[in-house]
Amino acid sequence: MAPNRYAAHVFMNRIDGLDVCSQPQLSISERPTGDLRWYCVIKGSCNCGAVTYTADVEATDVYVCHCSICRRFSGAQGMAVTVVENQSFRWTSDTDSIAVWDKPGHDWQANFCSVCGSAVPGRNDEARMFIPVGSIIEGGDRLTVVHHIYVDSKASWDTWDDDGQQHPEAFGSGEPGREL
Asked: Which 8-state DSSP code applies to residue 73?
């Protein structure tokens, strides 16, 4: 998974009837302490609601993996995720319903709800969590695909029409702007 290098606003809670999305965009360190008008959050869950989470983030980037492993896991063209720092992420339900499956012989892990089977957030690396963007139920209205990875492994029927940078394999591989 790729690091979340692009900072932008995803969603802000409505405070006192004001849509604070229109407030000036400040980095987390620039926000006035205790000023709830600057509290950004995305919320998400699995289909059945047994697994829920929030993330205090300013994320807009979506990374789509087109590898065969992600296609089999998702049952679609691949997995679309956003990546957030660990300190911004928190579970709002217990984690008893989260199941993890490690693909033997690969550095790949499936995180899913043991009740309904929906993909749920998981460990991206030591510092970050990945969030399947399909699990975001609030605050995902400004997400945009910025990278497609493992495009050389995509299904023959897989097409897209966005400006996301294409990588033949893992994030950072190949040339910027590579066309299929």
From this structure: H
pLDDT tier at 176 (50, 70, 90 boundaries)? low
Tens digits of residue pLDDT in 42-93: 999 999 999 999 999 867 899 999 999 999 999 999 999 999 999 999 999 9
The count of other CB atoms within 10 Å of the CB of residue 17 is 5
Distance CA 118, CA 50 (A): 10
Indicate left, alpha or beta for 165 from its phi (over 0: left) and psi (-120 to 50: alpha): beta
Contact 2, 83 (CB under 8 A): yes
Mean pLDDT value of segment 97-126: 91
Which pLDDT belongs to residue 30? 53
Distance of CA 66 to the CA centre of its chain: 15
Phi, psi of 3 (to 5 degrees): -70, 155
Spatial distance between the Cα atoms of 86 and 127, rounded to a whole number of angstroms: 6
Identify residue 101 by its one-letter amino acid code: W
Residue for token digits 């030591």?
126
- The H-or-E segment that residue 42 falls in is strand 42-45
Tell me which residue of 133, 6, 7, 163 sits closest to 70, measured CA to CA: 133
Measure the CA–CA gap between 89 and 87, rounded to whole angstroms. Answer: 6
Cα 149 from Cα 78, distance rounded (Å): 10
pTM of whole model > 0.90? no
